[in-house]
Design a protein that fits this description.
30% of the residues lie in helices and 27% in strands. With 151 residues, the chain is of the alpha+beta class. One of its GO terms (molecular function) is oxidoreductase activity.
Amino acid sequence: MSGRWHRWLYRGGRPNRVARIMNRAGAIGSATGLARHWVTLEVRGRRTGRAVSFPLVAADYQGQWYLVSMLGEDANWVRNVRAAGGRAVLRHGRRRQVALQEVEPALRPPIIRRYLRLAPGARPHIPVNRHAPLDDFERIADRVPVFRILR
């Protein structure tokens, strides 16, 4: 799929109807654990209190695992995780309670670069080439939330 298509799916930073349907299917598929980096994040909605599921790509870097927001600060899952104090459930073959700890911007660049190598669908949303030097990632790191997955 093209970058234009991916940007259309999330125009205005929110998933449109097609993206929501694809996300539901993706959440089911990623929860199975068949693909190494695909996970489903379940977190309480900050308004409804109901569990909300999001298919995401988990990036591994230096022995740790991370979730990166391709849509930046305004992604619903980011707001929900912050409102929940980092408490969430990850599904990847099985369900497990996790704590998500936000990574400070100075430490994000190599994690974001690793994430872009793993998540082709995120590339149109993050304005840095995945092969760029870390200096380029430093310029955008404060706009791309990253959370360390703690067990």
